[in-house]
Amino acid sequence: MITVPVPQEHVFYNNRGIAYGEKGDVDLAIKDFDKAIDLKPDYAFAYNNRCAV
User: Which of 25, 27, 30, 35 shows the shortest CA–CA distance to 49?
Assistant: First the structure.
């Protein structure tokens, strides 16, 4: 299996975190926001969304 890096992968995790948060899955949302932050530490939206969950 070949893994191809996705340039906007941090956005995917942030958006999925938002979806989890809206469903009430706070733990999963926080994990995704943390992953987005790990991938792009200067991505302010992930920090903001993590605080809002």
Answer: 30
CB environment 29-48: b (16+ within 10 A), e (fewer): bbebbebbbebbeebebbee
- The residue type of 13 is Y
Domains of the chain, first to last: 9-52 (1.25.40.10)
Residue 16 has a pLDDT of 96
Cβ neighbours around 21 below 10 Å, total = 19
Encoding tokens for residue 19? 């979806």
Digit-coded pLDDT (tens) for 37-53 = 999 999 999 999 999 99
